[in-house]
Amino acid sequence: MALSTDESRRMADRLRTDSADLVATWVAKAGAPLTGRLSEGELRRQITELYGVLVAALDEGMTDLSAAPGGELRAVLADLSRGRARQGFSATETAVSVFTLKDALSGRADLADPAELRDFLSFNRFIDELGLFTFSSYSAAREELIADQAEQLLELSTPVVKLWEGVVAVPLVGTLDSARAQVVMERLLQALVDTGSPYAIIDITGVPAVDTQVAQHILKTVVAARLMGAECLISGIRPQIAQTIVALGIEFGDIATKATLADALRHVLRRSAARTGGRAEPVA
Amino acid sequence: MDRVPVLKLGDVLLVSIQVDLADKTTVQLEEDLSERIVATGARGVIIDISALDIVDSFVGRMLATIAAISRVLDAETVVVGMRPAVAITLVELGLSLHGIQTALNVERALEVLSRARDDDWIPPLDTEDDTAPAAP
Amino acid sequence: MTGDPGEEAQTQAVVSDQDVVRVRQLVRTAAVTAKLSLVDQTKVVTAASELARNTLVYGGGGSVQVRVVRQRRSGVRVELADDGPGIGDLELALTDGYTTGGGLGLGLSGARRLVDEFEIDTAPGRGTRISIVKWAR
Ligand SMILES: Nc1ncnc2c1ncn2[C@@H]1O[C@H](COP(=O)(O)OP(=O)(O)OP(=O)(O)O)[C@@H](O)[C@H]1O
Ligand SMILES: [Mg+2]
Fold this sequence. Notes:
The complex is a heterotrimer of chains A (284), B (136) and C (137). Chain A has 284 residues and is an alpha/beta fold. Chain A contains ten helices and five strands, in the order H-H-H-H-H-H-E-E-H-E-H-E-H-E-H. Chain A has a five-stranded mixed sheet with strand order 1-2-3-4-5. Chain A starts with a helix and ends in an 8-residue tail after the last helix. The relative contact order of chain A is 0.08. Chain B is an alpha/beta fold. Chain B has one domain (6-110): Transcription Regulator spoIIAA (2-Layer Sandwich), CATH 3.30.750. Chain B has helices at 23-40, 57-72, 84-93, 106-117, and strands at residues 6-9, 12-16, 44-48, 76-80, 101-103. In chain B, strands 1-2-3-4-5 form a five-stranded mixed sheet, with helices on both faces. The N and C termini of chain B lie far apart (58 Å). Chain C has one domain (10-135): Histidine kinase-like ATPase, C-terminal domain (Heat Shock Protein 90, 2-Layer Sandwich), CATH 3.30.565.10. Chain C is 36% helix and 27% strand. In chain C, helix 1 (17-33) runs antiparallel to helix 2. Chains in contact: A-B, B-C. Bound molecules: adenosine-5'-triphosphate and magnesium ion. Magnesium ion (MG) binds next to helix 2 of chain C. Magnesium ion is lined by residues 50, 53-54, 103, 107 of chain C. Chain A: This is Polyvinylalcohol dehydrogenase. Chain A: It comes from Pilimelia terevasa. Chain A: Keywords: Phosphoprotein. Chain A: Pfam families: RsbRD_N (PF14361), STAS (PF01740). Chain A: Residues 157-268 form the STAS domain.
């Protein structure tokens, strides 16, 4: 427990006395390390909001940030961290906005008075807790951000396209690592369901090299597609890759492979025409 | 115990599994289906598993057994609607359901069955014509 | 954010095939809470289903604990325990296709492939305890 109930009430009182001046000092101290990268108005808004929920939580007798009355305060701190992480501020620059409340308070305490000194130390400990929380929600936000960006990159690099009515294709370009191969697999299979396509083509013309793991992923995709009732072809296997596949002893078994994407599409259209006795229609 | 209903559509039996299958229910379905194939003289069985969020080895084995039994009874079994996540998991588990016909949905399964029944039907020869000009 | 043991464990006795269904549901709920992707949810539920059935069929029944774990990443931990005959030759039991019960022999080996961590503690006459973890990616 960071504060006793009495201490939390006294802290609220202290924050309330001459509040305009306190907030102004806090904003000034918090703004210094940000060197003008955050507008004064924006910072003032953030500090004022933080000030408001802090006083409210203390009034409710919050003794610990993780206790129930701290809910809104935690949310505001997490928001602040998330925003700063997104704007590119460092974790320290973010936490400092909280820690500078200590500086703003220190000017107003009579530290020669033992009772005030004790309060002041407890307040400081409590503010440390707020700062640490800001720190950890900053890193969580940062990790989320990085994961999101990685995922966006993956999606950009693996477009699943509908080539023809009943035929989806994924042209792979660049190095295929295991994580990306897995994403491709999931997206391609989902596209089969979404478009009701019984044919899929994986074109690896743009892939410079294939290792055992990636080859395994492609094989698994083909088998999974089959389980779902679709047929999956592989096109664009370049001679070096064919050599690797053979050298690695990977069985491509009865999987249909074609030299080019065009050959694969032709093969599929002929098959589906034979199946339905009709003509496959190009996508409008 | 839940019992999975078996519907008859012409000479095709349609089973749409809508519940998380307990093992006894799975075994019961296997028995029900064999009996119904014989009793109705059905030529085809469609098992729709699009509502199943997992298929483990027990259900996988049931699907394989039904396919094998129906083949002996001169009927074809088509499993339809397997979800992508389920398919990926089954492959990783090591179950490839060899010899089981699959289709994306019931409509396509009916096509598969009518093709199989058409005695005049000859599999298309894959006459690759690689001397032909490439498709535009 | 340290090695927090995570949320409270949910315990499910496994004495009938309906209990195996309940284990699947518990694991699914935990996997959703732990923010696993749909494919990873499906993998861990399937693994748990295989193992819980083994607990029932070979272990003569037992119990399963399911919990959400939070460390650097979040995940699901499933622990199964029975006081059955135990497994004598573990390597053999973990081989694809090995079965003493007329199954496909894919439950144990397949479940191991589907998860990130797989620990098994078993010996003849001492029952079997298995713990698996699947982490959010
Ligand atoms: N909890 C257990 N207690 C005792 N023996 C076990 C236990 N779990 C597995 N075994 C042994 O290990 C063997 C392999 O188990 P596994 O789950 O891989 O295959 P299975 O259950 O026989 O078939 P499947 O799960 O594919 O339907 C079992 O046949 C059994 O002999
Ligand atoms: Mg088993």
